[in-house]
């Protein structure tokens, strides 16, 4: 079939298998171009199909020849209806990993559930024995709690008062003011339940209980801080409460891992266009200005550049360079004073009329479509493509 992008708001309903594969190939080539990383050899990635998790899986596999198990929640295609991008990404990843002689298996299902944890435990027992690195990169709007069956929804709201600021509709370039009402009821607690550290700890407990973590094993979860302009809706908002909880959980997990000399870290990453960040008001305007400034300074990075640097310079580079809260800061270039000062100036000026010059709206929009395998250089979108791609290890 011929597959074209079909968007509704900040989601795209279709995705392109060839474009997704090309994205994966580009990431693999990038990692290979940077040379070998003396890193972990047996790696479990939770949230492995898109964004930072996919980049982590690719960096482990093609930077350190690691065996990887990836867990994610994605839809395969049905006749005439493309699968989700994460599904195509994983199909492509496995294909190229296997071609390179690397072990790669995937489990598609709800990582918050006991069933999927059990499946992963059994797979590690059968195939790898133990793992030495666990990447926790889930981003989800909902979580069904495994103990109670209760469904929790996370929200992106400020805490305490209404937040009003600028935002952009990146499809039209329209800059407008948006007001977001503060959290109410159980909003904060629910968001912490979905995106906080509880599930991360449950994973590590389940792995440790079965002796599936090797001596000195490491686990890393991803967090975000960001600038002043997004603080009320991000770091000081409901999602920030969840990130505080996640960061606190790193210390608890490190305590739990004492007997094997293991460590849990949070890495604070750069703001990037992913499915998760496109859904947060105000952030797309910030990202379009951020990209413009960082590209001009020659320090722009995407997911793969971020994670390759995280691995080669921090995790396996001998210097974690932790901040005063014990976090890895691979958002260091985003948060540079000169970068933030320029964005603050541009922020005041940005309007519908001038944003295409002040900001990198085109870059934002392109990266958004890239997430779904569209507008990827070198892909022939007029060519007939088989949508019924499957993930090799799932066959
Ligand atoms: P993403 O949306 O690209 O990836 C999320 C992954 O989680 C996908 O593989 C998806 O299949 C999987 N997933 C979601 N629900 C699941 C479930 N119930 N069971 C199994 N798998 C499930 O997200 P992104 O942006 O890569 O985010 C990953 C982490 O990085 C998050 O903690 C996020 O807060 C953090 N982060 C994101 C930044 C950004 O700008 N996008 C910046 C800094 C940190
Ligand atoms: Na991810």
From TrEMBL:
Ribosomal protein as UniProt keyword: no
Enzyme nomenclature, EC number: 1.3.1.9
GO molecular function: enoyl-[acyl-carrier-protein] reductase (NADH) activity; NAD binding; trans-2-enoyl-CoA reductase (NADH) activity
One biological process term in Gene Ontology: fatty acid biosynthetic process
Domain Trans-2-enoyl-CoA reductase catalytic: 81-316
Keywords linked to the UniProt accession: Fatty acid biosynthesis, Fatty acid metabolism, Lipid biosynthesis, Lipid metabolism, NAD, Oxidoreductase
Active site: residue positions: 234 (proton donor)
Positions that bind substrate: 224
Functional description taken from the UniProt entry: Involved in the final reduction of the elongation cycle of fatty acid synthesis (FAS II). Catalyzes the reduction of a carbon-carbon double bond in an enoyl moiety that is covalently linked to an acyl carrier protein (ACP).
Alphabetized HAMAP family for the sequence: FabV_reductase
Protein name, as recorded: Enoyl-[acyl-carrier-protein] reductase [NADH]
Organism: Polaribacter reichenbachii
Taxonomic path: Bacteria, Pseudomonadati, Bacteroidota, Flavobacteriia, Flavobacteriales
Gene assigned in the entry: fabV
């Amino acid at each position: 079939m011929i597959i074209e992008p079909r968007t509704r708001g900040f989601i795209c309903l279709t995705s392109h298998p060839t474009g997704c594969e090309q994205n994966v190939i580009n990431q693999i080539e990038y990692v290979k171009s940077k040379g070998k990383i003396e890193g972990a050899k047996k790696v479990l990635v939770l949230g492995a199909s898109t964004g930072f998790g996919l980049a982590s899986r690719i960096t482990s596999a093609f930077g350190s020849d690691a065996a990887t198990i990836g867990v994610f929640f994605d839809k395969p295609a049905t006749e005439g209806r493309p699968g989700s991008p994460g599904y195509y990404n994983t199909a492509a990843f496995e294909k190229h990993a296997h071609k390179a002689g690397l072990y790669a298996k995937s489990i598609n299902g709800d990582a918050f559930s006991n069933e999927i944890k059990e499946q992963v435990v059994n797979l590690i027992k059968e195939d790898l024995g133990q793992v030495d690195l666990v990447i926790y990169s889930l981003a989800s709007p909902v979580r069904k709690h495994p103990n109670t069956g209760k469904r929790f929804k996370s929200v992106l709201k400020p805490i305490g008062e209404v937040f009003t600021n600028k935002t952009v509709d990146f499809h039209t370039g329209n800059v407008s003011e948006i007001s977001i009402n503060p959290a109410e009821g159980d909003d904060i607690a629910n968001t912490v339940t979905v995106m906080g550290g509880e599930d991360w700890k449950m994973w590590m407990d389940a792995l440790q209980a079965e002796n599936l973590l090797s001596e000195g094993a490491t686990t890393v979860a991803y967090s975000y801080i960001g600038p002043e302009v997004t603080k009320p809706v991000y770091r000081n908002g409901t999602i920030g409460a969840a990130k505080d909880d996640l960061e606190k959980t790193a210390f608890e997990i490190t305590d739990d891992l004492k007997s094997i000399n293991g460590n849990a870290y949070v890495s604070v990453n750069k703001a990037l266009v992913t499915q998760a960040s496109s859904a947060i008001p105000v952030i797309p305007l910030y990202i379009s200005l951020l990209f413009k400034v960082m590209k001009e300074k020659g320090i722009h990075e995407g997911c793969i550049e971020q994670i390759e640097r995280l691995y080669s310079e921090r995790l396996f580079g001998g210097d974690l360079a932790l901040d005063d809260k014990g976090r890895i800061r691979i958002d260091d270039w985003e948060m540079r004073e000169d970068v933030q000062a320029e964005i603050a100036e541009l922020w005041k000026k940005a309007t519908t009329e001038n944003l295409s010059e002040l900001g990198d709206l085109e870059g934002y929009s392109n990266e958004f479509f890239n997430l779904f395998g569209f507008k990827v250089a070198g892909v022939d979108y007029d060519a007939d493509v088989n949508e019924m791609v499957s993930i090799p290890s799932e066959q």
